[in-house]
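Action item from last week, closing it out:
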Amino acid sequence: MSRGLNKLQIIGRLGRDPEMRYTSQGTPVTNFSVATGGKWTDRDGNERDDTEWFRVDAWDRLAEICNQYLTKGREVYVEGRIKTRKYTDRDGVERTSIDVVASNVILLGGRGEEGGDNSGSYEEEEETFDAPPPARTAAPARQTAAPQRSAAPAPRNTARGRNQPQPIESDMGDEDIPF
């Protein structure tokens, strides 16, 4: 019997600065939102924006890295799995949230409107970071003498089964879209 596949890849921009918290066991978790954008044409020929928002949870060392280097407007590549959860909001209404549990986050381009010059990249920290390789069938990437300027380390998410943080209410409107 097949175990199935739950894998998501997105490229977009952060809608707000990340928020890092700790579980009761002391495990770091960072939450951030990523907006992906596209355009489509309606029947009348008018071009419309199509923005999708993704709530992303990063755990353990990846959470610390995301909290340190990600900022609102930063373009990122996120790889992970979809996780649904139910919770009761402040008004007592039961809701369902669809989140992305990140297994890999890569910083792309520049920060927000600064362009693609990679200012503020973290080459030095990347050189000294020793994360365990992700559990995949592909061969692990080899470390080169010169670090890649836009790639983030890819620690493996090992937080399965731990307590999940309380949901963050989303109050983002169209004016908060980072592109």
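Closing note: The two ends are 43 Å apart (CA to CA).
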